[in-house]
Amino acid sequence: MLDVGTPAPVLTLEDSDGSAVRLADFRGTSSVLMYFMRTTTCAICNGHVRDLVARSAEFSARGVTVLVVVPEGRAEAAAWKTDNKIPFTVVTGESGTPHESVGLNKKVFGALQQSGSMLVDVDGVIRHSHAATLPPRAYDKKGLAAALEALGSVAA
Fold first, then answer.
1. Going residue by residue through the chain (156 aa), what tens digit of pLDDT does each one get?
2. CATH architecture of the region 12-151
3. Where are the domains of the chain?
4. 108 Ramachandran zone, left/alpha/beta (phi>0; psi -120 to 50)
5. pTM of the predicted structure, to 2 decimals
6. DSSP three-state, residue 80
7. I need a labelling partner for 124 at 20 to 30 A (CA). Which of 19, 24, 102, 144 fits?
8. Cα end-to-end distance, the chain, whole Å
9. 44 Cβ contact partners less than 8 Å away, ≥ 6 residues apart
10. How many CA atoms lie within 13 A of 15 on its CB side?
């Protein structure tokens, strides 16, 4: 996973409607929290997404846009987003898996996709980066809370 304090990568993803989502497009307007799911069928990852949904007002107050990143294709991402009533943008890679572009690889003999999160501030600098092979460890709630606190809030 990428290091805290380093510039965010140049990353172009595709949302569940087929539109390009470029991480650089948020620079100067919004911080971005990317949560990388192991798979949309992972019950633990789905629980982490439900927590993110429950905290959506907190993210909004801090000027943070949440992107849920899935390794499946656009059709599967769109169906999962609709079926689970996900209010966030759900993205997948335009080509290849977006997970690999930030260093989240398949482990355990190539069978288990790593998952994790990355918070990029409004200036395009990584402020939180966490990865895990086992889904229960992929959502660093305390580390993310500290990074969000350090961002402050957006003036109304």
1. 789 999 999 999 999 999 999 999 999 999 999 999 999 999 999 999 999 999 999 999 999 999 999 999 999 999 999 999 999 999 997 556 788 888 888 776 666 888 999 999 999 999 999 999 888 899 999 999 999 999 876 654
2. 3-Layer(aba) Sandwich (3.40)
3. 12-151
4. left
5. 0.92
6. helix
7. 19
8. 34
9. 38, 135, 136, 138
10. 14
Give the residues across from 93 on adjacent strands: 13
C-alpha 131/C-alpha 135 separation (Å) is 9
What region does 130 belong to: left with phi over 0, alpha with psi -120 to 50, or beta?
Answer: beta
CA–CA gap between residue 153 and residue 132 (Å, rounded): 28
Those residues whose C-beta lies under 8 Å from the C-beta of residue 3, and which sit 6 or more positions away, are 126, 129
CB contact burial 114-145 (16+ within 10 A = b; e otherwise): bbbbbbbbbebebbbbbbbbebeebbbeeebe
- pLDDT value at residue 135: 87
